Structure formats: C-alpha cells, structure tokens
TrEMBL record:
This is Tyrosine-protein kinase. It holds the Pfam family PK_Tyr_Ser-Thr. Keywords: ATP-binding, Kinase, Nucleotide-binding, SH2 domain, Transferase, Tyrosine-protein kinase. InterPro entries: Kinase-like_dom_sf (IPR011009), Non-receptor_tyrosine_kinases (IPR050198), Prot_kinase_dom (IPR000719), Protein_kinase_ATP_BS (IPR017441), Ser-Thr/Tyr_kinase_cat_dom (IPR001245), SH2 (IPR000980), SH2_dom_sf (IPR036860), Tyr_kinase_AS (IPR008266). It is an enzyme of class 2 (transferase). It catalyses: L-tyrosyl-[protein] + ATP = O-phospho-L-tyrosyl-[protein] + ADP + H(+). Its EC number is 2.7.10.2. ATP binds at K132.
Length: 375
C-alpha cells in the first residue's frame, strides 16, 4: 500500500479466491478490508441485496456518498505502487511456476528457520520477494512439488502467497510474498507490551483465524500453526505462512517428544491425538491456534515453560491445561480452553473463532470456570 493512499482508498479487482468474481478492497485508515461484490445476471452489482446497482460506476457513487455497512465511505481509487506486489511473478508463472533461479537476486538474509535460510530478494531486478532456501535433502522434490501445486492455488489475503519455485537443482527455492516485519513471534517479543495491547492482540488473532478459516473451507491442514509461522507486514497485516510444509519436511533424527531445545519443540503446539496417532486434522490446527493465542497474549512466551515435551504430553492426558496468563481476559482464556478440548470434535471451527474474535467486545467480562475443562 502506497503512503499516498488515505482512508477510503479503494480498489475493485478480480477476487483472489473466486475466479471471475469481483472484490472491493477498502483502506479504513489502518487496515485494508475486503468485500465480495456479488453479481446477478440482468440485475447488476451489489454487496447486499437491498442495494443493487446496474453499473459499477453507480455502485461506487453510492458508497462514496454513504458507507452503508462498509468500514468507511469510498474516497479515491487506490494509487498503485510502481512495482505492484504480484499474485504471480509474471503471466508465465501463473502456470509455469518453475522459474529460472538466475532471475532472482538474493539481497539480505532475513532469518534462518526449520527448513533453511530465508532471504529478501528481487525477481527480475524489479519485484521484491522472499526466498526460502531449503536445506538440501530436507524434502523430496517430488513430494514438495505435489504439495506446492495445492499451495499455489490457496489464495487469501491472510495467507502468504506462494509465487514460484526453483526445484531443478539444490537448494530448492520457494518464492513468496515479502513481509517487512518478519515473524510474529519476534515482533511480539520485541514489543513486549510497549505498543501492542489487547485490541491489537485480538486483531492479530482474528486475522490469523480468517486465514485459517479459508484453509478450513478448502479442506487443507496447516500442521504447524504457531507464532513463528505467522508473518507481519505493513499496516498491521498478519498472514499465515508455511502451511502444509510440515507434511513434506523430513524430520531428521529429531524426536518430537524430547527435542533438546525448548524453542523449537513443536510438540507444545501439537494436539495430543496428532502426537499419539498422527491424527492431524483441521481440529489439531485449532488446538495449535489455542497455543498461538497464548503466545499472542504473553508477547511470545514459551508455552508450558520449563517443561519437557514428554512431561507436557503426560500432563495433558491427565487434563492439565496451560493456566490463565496474568494479563489474559477470561473471555480470551475461555476461547483457548475451547481450542484445547480433549475431544477434537468439541473444538470450535476456525469460522467460529474468526467471528468470535472479530466481534470481541473488549469491555465485557464473563466468569468462567476453568475447572470445567479438566477431566
Ligand atoms: P521460517 O523458515 O519460515 O521459519 O523463516 C525464518 C525467518 O525468516 C522468520 O522467522 C522470518 O523472520 C523470516 N521470514 C520468513 N518468511 C518471510 C517472508 N515471506 N517475508 C519476510 N520474512 C520472512
């Protein structure tokens, strides 16, 4: 988003998730909100059936004079960046998404993750991208390509968009959109409560739930949802990254139950049924989302601090759950406990989590009996 764009800047574009349909994106001064413009043959364009417009011009005129349910009134059309962030790197990569690695320039190392290094880079000397370099041998290219085919079609404003890959030689490169502020975990830890407070924390959680609700609707499982796998962009935009990669990543010599370093212990994010019997599902992602809520509210504290993975598993089986953090409102803790229901079916859907967090009322307090969730 260009700095020239002010509140009410808008864009009408083809929908990212539903080809052939139109979406309206509106900048409310802080974040960009997206609406689906519905069309009915012979009738026209509308957001809600009570106002149908014969032309898009009439549609824009109406919402310029009256917000009528939109976050703000429409003002000026969005000014596009000189180098727009593309959905695909070029027309060609829309289908042929294997690109020539020589078209990439690696500029600055951004970090080092489970899979290898991540670089800020430029594609064709013009387009800023993030380049994930995979440690040789960490994945079977065939498995990865199969997964990447699916990942490429997952398009949502709250999911990191996969642009292209370089898989013909090692190291495999995964090219994605660049997120200027890096991982949510570090972002939270660096802030530690100075700028980020409950409304921002709830907004982060709602945005992640929105991306996850989309994955849920596409019957896709993340398998490694955690603050380290959420990225932070400009204007308080949060997006889910690395969905599906855990399935194709070969874990070498790593015992998830007793990994040596507490920091990279995925077991603390993983639902008991997924650890015990490898039953990963969208409901095991919901469990992880509960842990992510804990990370958000505690500014990136380690869950089950001081405990080893095997101890966590034993205690969870006996009904133990992370206690309510000191600054965590009851209502938010109640949502966490719902995510940690021992019975996967008893956990909420991401769609429900999304609206609960979007509609979260900061002022209301509610009493909950945490013991009700202990077996
Ligand atoms: P990962 O391998 O995904 O764990 O990434 C390691 C680190 O690289 C993260 O903690 C981020 O700080 C950074 N990073 C990963 N992906 C991106 C991206 N798309 N944009 C910006 N920074 C990223």
């Amino acid at each position: 988003m260009c700095p020239e764009n002010q509140e009410g800047a808008f864009l009408i574009r083809e929908s990212e998730s539903k080809k052939g349909q139109l979406s309206l994106s509106v900048f409310d001064g802080a974040v960009v909100k997206h609406y689906r413009i519905r069309q009915e043959a012979g009738e026209g364009f509308f957001l809600s059936k009570k106002n149908i417009f014969k032309t898009l011009n009439a549609f824009v005129d109406h919402y310029t004079n009256n917000s009528d349910g939109l976050c703000v009134k429409l003002r000026k059309p969005c000014i596009k960046k000189k180098v727009p962030a593309p959905i695909d790197l070029s027309y060609k990569t829309a289908d042929q998404w294997e690109i020539d690695r020589n078209s990439l320039k690696l500029l600055k190392k951004l970090g080092y993750g489970q899979f290898g290094e991540v670089w800020e880079g430029l594609w064709n000397n013009t387009t800023p991208v993030a380049i994930k370099t995979l440690k040789p041998g960490s994945m079977d290219p065939k498995d990865f390509l199969r997964e990447a085919q699916i990942m490429k079609n997952l398009r949502h404003p709250k999911l990191i968009q996969l642009y292209a890959v370089c898989t013909l030689e090692d190291p495999i490169y995964i090219i994605t959109e660049l997120m200027r502020h890096g991982s949510l975990l570090e972002y939270l830890q660096n802030d530690a409560g100075s700028e980020i407070h409950l409304p921002e924390q709830i907004d982060m959680a709602a945005q992640v739930a929105s991306g996850m609700a989309y994955l849920e609707s596409q019957n896709y499982i993340h398998r490694d949802l955690a603050a380290r796998n959420v990225l932070v962009g400009e204007h308080n935009v949060y997006k889910v990254a690395d969905f599906g990669l855990a399935r194709v990543f070969k874990v070498e010599n790593e015992n998830v139950y007793e990994a040596k370093h507490e920091t990279k212990l995925p077991v603390k994010w993983t639902a008991p049924e997924a650890i015990r019997s490898n039953k990963f599902s969208i409901k095991s992602d919901v469990w992880s989302f509960g842990i992510l809520l804990f990370e958000i509210i505690t500014y990136g504290k380690m869950p089950y601090s001081g405990m080893m993975g095997y101890q966590v598993i034993q205690k969870l089986d006996k009904g133990y759950r992370i206690p309510q953090p000191a600054n965590c409102p009851d209502k938010l803790y109640y949502i966490m406990l719902e995510c940690w229901n021992a019975e996967p079916k008893g956990r909420p859907t991401f769609e429900t989590l999304h609206w609960k967090l979007e509609d979260y009322d900061m002022d209301s307090t509610s009493y909950i009996d945490a013991n009700a969730f202990v077996k």
